[in-house]
Every structure is written in C-alpha cells, then in structure tokens.
Amino acid sequence: VSADEDCLFCRILAGEVPAEVVAQDEHTLAFRDIAPQAPTHVLVIPRRHITNAGHVSADDAEVVAAMLVAAQRVAELEGIAAEERGFRLVMNVGADALNSVPHLHLHVLGGRSMSWPPG
Ligand code: AMP
C-alpha cells in the first residue's frame, strides 16, 4: 500500500479524499468517477502505486489480473456484465490520451451504447 501524499488516488486509498466505493479487495479499490461519461463509470485502481499502463512490470501481474477481476465484479454489480449489456474498459496512458491522474486506473464504462472513436 502506497502512502504517496501527492497522489490523488493514493489519498483516496488512504481515506483522506472521499469516494463512492463500489467494490474493493486485497489488491484493488473501485469507485465512481467524479465526472461520469456513461451511466456506469467506475474507476478500478490498484492499491499499489503504479504510474500508468506504460509502467507495468512483470512483478505487477497479480495486481493487473486483480484489476480485470474487479472490473467484472463491478459490471455484475451494475447489471452490465459481459453476457448482459457489456461494457468498455479503458486505460489512458500519457499526454495524448489525456491521462490526468498518474496512478494506474481502469475505466469501466457502460449502461449506454458506445461510439467509436470515443467522443
Ligand atoms: P484519466 O483521464 O484516464 O487519467 O482519468 C482520470 C479520471 O479520474 C477522470 O475521469 C476524472 O473524472 C477522475 N477523477 C478525478 N478526480 C476524481 C475524484 N476525486 N474522484 C473520482 N474520480 C476522479
């Protein structure tokens, strides 16, 4: 567990910044995005501070797998599981992707039909 004072999502993990938590487990926390882009917009973050998907190493394999399992759990809780409505998973990496929070997070988006490319 990181205690990075300058990282917003580490502060959410520490309970210092409020968030609407949807699910959590040993490796992850899932909470609602503050500016939702879809009826369901949940962020799944690792408890371990990893900057973004461009900084994942083989040592993070268990944590990254746990993020995908957590996303499935969120989708089930939100009624948008794969065999129901389905959902979109997004990870933004760096400037061109408009990655704004430098703590790895998986966007779980659903509850509406998605366009491509995203608007
Ligand atoms: P990204 O642009 O991929 O780095 O995503 C960062 C996301 O974090 C954006 O969708 C923001 O709306 C969201 N966000 C920023 N601050 C908060 C917060 N305090 N609680 C929940 N979501 C947040």
Primary descriptors:
globular; 5 strands; binds adenosine monophosphate; 119 residues
Question: Would you spell out the secondary-structure blueprint of this structure?
Answer:
Layout: H1 8-13, E1 21-24, E2 28-32, E3 40-46, H2 61-78, E4 88-90, E5 106-110
Antiparallel strand pairs: 1-2, 2-3, 3-5, 4-5
The chain binds adenosine monophosphate (AMP).
Residues 8, 17, 19, 33-35, 43, 92, 98-101 line the site of adenosine monophosphate (AMP).
Describe the structure.
The structure is a single chain. With 119 residues, the chain is α+β, with helices and mostly antiparallel strands. Helix content is 20%, strand content 20%. The chain has helices at residues 8-13, 61-78; strands at 21-24, 28-32, 40-46, 88-90, 106-110. It has a five-stranded antiparallel beta sheet with strand order 1-2-3-5-4, with helices on one face. A hairpin with a 7-residue loop joins strand 2 and strand 3 (40-46). It is globular and about 35 Å long. The chain starts with 7 loop residues before the first helix and ends in a 9-residue tail after the last strand. The protein binds adenosine monophosphate. The site of adenosine monophosphate (AMP) has 12 residues, from loops.
